Each structure stands twice: as C-alpha cells, then as structure tokens.
Amino acid sequence: MWKPKPATKFDVGLPLDVAWINEFSRAYYELCEGRADHEFIYALAERLMPIGVSIDPRKVAELASFAVTFEMPGEG
Which of 3, 12, 34, 62 registers the highest number of CB atoms within 10 A of its CB? Predict the structure, then answer.
C-alpha cells in the first residue's frame, strides 16, 4: 500500500485518502502546466483514489494525464 512521503505542511495530520487526493491533484496540476480546472482535477482524483490508493499518486496522475489527452489515431 502507498504510504505518503513525510507530510508537507499542507498534509500534516490528514487521513491517507485526503493526503493521496491532495498529492494526486498537485501532481496532475503540474503535469498539465496549470491548464486544468481544479474542480476537474479533484473530481478525477476522487474517482481514481479507490483503485489507486495503494499506488504513488504521482504515478496515477501521470497515467491519468495520458489517458485524458489521448487521441485515437486518425480521429484527431
């Protein structure tokens, strides 16, 4: 199971699921270079957290960013 890194000042004392969602959200926002809506990111994090809680949230954010921006060949 994924264990959070030493708590940042923002995540001190938070439950694991909240810390995971926060870390995922920060990573996803960085990956999209600030071009994604915060509500979208948090909704995506909440959807992915139950299946990704045992995985590093930064890895899940990376995979999610690929999935969200994927275009089928010949469809773009």
Answer: 62
The amino acid at residue 16 is L
Tokens 């699921």 -> residue = 17
Cα 20 off chain centre by: 8
* CB distance 36 to 69 below 8 Å: no
Whole-model pTM? 0.78
pLDDT surpassing 90 at residue 59: yes
Distance, CA of 3 to CA of 21 (rounded, Å): 13
Alpha helices, DSSP H, located in the chain? 16-31, 38-52, 57-69
pLDDT, one tens digit per residue, over 27-38 is 999 999 888 888
Q: Which two tokens stand for residue 56?
A: 């590093």
